Amino acid sequence: MMNDKLVFLGLLYFIQGIPYGLQSSLLPVYLRGAGHSLTRISFTKILYFPWVLKVLWAPLVDRTGTKRCWLVGTVAGLALTCLVSATISPNVQYMAVAGSLLAMNVLASVQDIAVDGAAVRLLKGQGELGLGNTVQVVGYKAGSVFAGGGLLAVIDVAGWGWMFALLACVYGGVALFVWGAPVLDGESVWGQGEGRSKDVMQPWKVWRKLLSVPGTPWMMCYVLTYKLGEQGAITMFPLFLLDHHMTARELGVWNGVVAMAFSICGSSIGGFLLSQYSIGMLMRRVFMMRTVSMVFQSSLLVVLEPSPLMKGMAVLSLSLQHFIAGLITTLTFTTMMNCTQRAEESIQATHYSFLATLEVLGKLSFSALAGGMVDTVGFPIAFILFLFLTSSSALHVWRATETGVLKEQLKEQPK
User: Fold this and answer.
1) DSSP letter assigned to residue 195
2) CA max distance for the chain
């Protein structure tokens, strides 16, 4: 029965990662090759905003229908969206591409609410929760690798239309699988019930409770800013390589597959390290490692002539960057959960969702501006700013371990 749960959740998280891989890895390379500006490519990041706004329709998913109906509906909707996208000519129909991406993000964000709700109901006990969360991270990132790397090879050989036709078949098959999945048998039509209706009627009291949780103001600032410099570099460095050193197919392998594999390794190793060392100590050291990695990557921008050595250094930089990013993500979400555990039980889910929304908002807002920044001031100046932001977040964490909310966690050893 446990294996059935993990297969069910892993498959859903896998297809949930596909839109992210399309938009973060495949489409920037494809659109750049079609002659679009970095500013226009970066503005596609705005289409991630349904993930920020999903808290607005989460109560609807939670209180109406069943998780099976929501999942089948959203996955089938993704299949239909892919079929429509297969008829688009991306070279000349930029707004149609944007519209299809927006629809995929809306549907995937609703799917996320439903699958998270299903996971909460299905996973029992600490052992199952640990395995379920591992499946979530690995499944989502594997979906991103499939879309950002594997499909880039498909689109290079078969074209835009056949790629989306393949995706439509994948989504259609998963919709049929979910429709007949026995693990969802017996779920309640009304989800988690009507016990939160009083909170919904008095939202300001809930917000006051959220903001009064110890450590919340610091955590809000942290999750909004900790990925700014890293996100700018992760978004722009592959496009620098495309302009000077690599082909689209090479980038699909190195940035879409190999780099994501390092990210998955970083996320997995983060869980092991947390069982051995305190969060505070790990965050201090890993954030300093990220700053050094950013210095190394920025130094590569002065090399414009292609060479095997430069290509090797670029691959090393991408791999190290994604490994550290995966490690920091695991540490961050663990720290967020530690903060949420200080809240009243009645608002813990809302508190964690609030922090997670801010985390997404911080990453997306800067990603949308990074391309315009590079178009305006050039790669070297933009990366100096990315380095400054990365160093600032490391200082923010270091000060918190010395005098702030992470001070106790610096000395606290895992149990």
Assistant:
1) T
2) 64
Evaluated on CA atoms 344, 346, 348, 351, the torsion sign reads negative
**Comparing 76-80, 131-135, 290-294, 340-344, which segment has the lowest mean pLDDT?**
131-135
Indicate the angle between helix axes 348-377 and 216-225, nearest 10 degrees.
Answer: 30
* Exposure of 203 in the CB half-sphere (CA atoms within 13 A): 2
Amino acid identity, position 256: G
pLDDT in tens, 244-271: 778 777 887 888 678 878 988 887 787 6
Q: What DSSP assignment string belongs to 16-81? A: HTHHHHIIIIIHHHHHHHTT--HHHHHHGGGGGTHHHHHHHHHHHHHHSS-HHHHHHHHHHHHHHH
Burial class (CB in 10 A: 0-12, 13-18, 19+), 101: buried
- Give the Cα separation of 107 and 105 in Å (integer): 5
Q: How far apart are CA 369 and CA 322, in angstroms?
A: 21
List, in sequence order, every beta strand (DSSP E) within 69-137: none
Amino acid identity of residue 383, one-letter, is F
Per the CB < 8 A criterion, the answer to whether 281 and 410 are in contact is yes
Quick: pLDDT tens for 325-372. 988 887 887 777 777 767 775 566 567 677 877 887 888 777 778 888
The CB density around residue 353, as the number of other CB atoms within 10 Å, is 16
